[in-house]
Amino acid sequence: VLIAALTGNGKANNGFNANGRLVIDFGSDDVASGIQVDPVSGDLYVAATTGTGISRNFAVARVNQSGVMSTIFDTDGKAVYNLFGDDVAADLLVQPAGKVVVAGSSFVTTDIFLSLLRVGPTGAFDTTFSGDGVASTGIGAGGSNLIATSVARNSNGKIIVAGYTNFAASGSDSNDMVVLDFNADGSEDFTTPPQA
């Protein structure tokens, strides 16, 4: 995974790892999917998928403003998370108190489930979120085909995940957009439509 830091005029920011670039190796084939700044600490959080074939995992890195891996986060600034065996990260969200939510999809036999991971500032699973730091949901009778693409936090502090599915109510095979609302504890909110 490559992080490039630029100045306002588009040049390399040499205050970031001396040359404006940082390469992070999670140990396998790595693909970055999201980056966000913690508004409190100023640290960067990066979400990625690491692994190959049917053995992919979520990965998260924490980097300080000078481009150095944060030793606060899992001692070396990066961590890999195996949720269901084959997991692909799509986006991440930094919540208050430095909690990080990664949204993605998990492939289990013939089904695809939307998955959420929440970790604390040190990289440990947040057990106040769905009991073990991991939440998942699916759509479809007798199966699921639900792909997450982005995650955000609304004004009420709830987690909003957007994605798509081809389990349409009409029975067609075309893709349909899906927006899901999760409470702070990782449970789905079925009471009201997702709101900004």
Which helices and strands, and how do they pair?
Layout: E1 2-4, E2 21-23, E3 30-37, E4 44-50, E5 57-63, E6 78-81, E7 87-94, E8 100-108, E9 111-119, E10 134-137, E11 146-153, E12 159-165, E13 176-182
Antiparallel strand pairs: 1-2, 3-4, 4-5, 5-6, 7-8, 8-9, 9-10, 11-12, 12-13
Total DSSP helices:
0
Average pLDDT, rounded to a whole number, is 91
Rounded to the nearest angstrom, the distance between the terminal CA atoms is 31 Å
Q: Helix and strand string, N-terminal first?
A: EEEEEEEEEEEEE
Structural class of the helix and strand makeup?
A: mainly beta
Shape descriptor reads: globular
Strand order of the largest sheet: 3-4-5-6
DSSP E strands, number: 13
Unreliable residue runs:
none
The whole-angstrom Rg is 17 Å
Largest sheet: 4 strands, antiparallel
Q: What proportion of the residues form beta strands (DSSP E)?
A: 35-45%
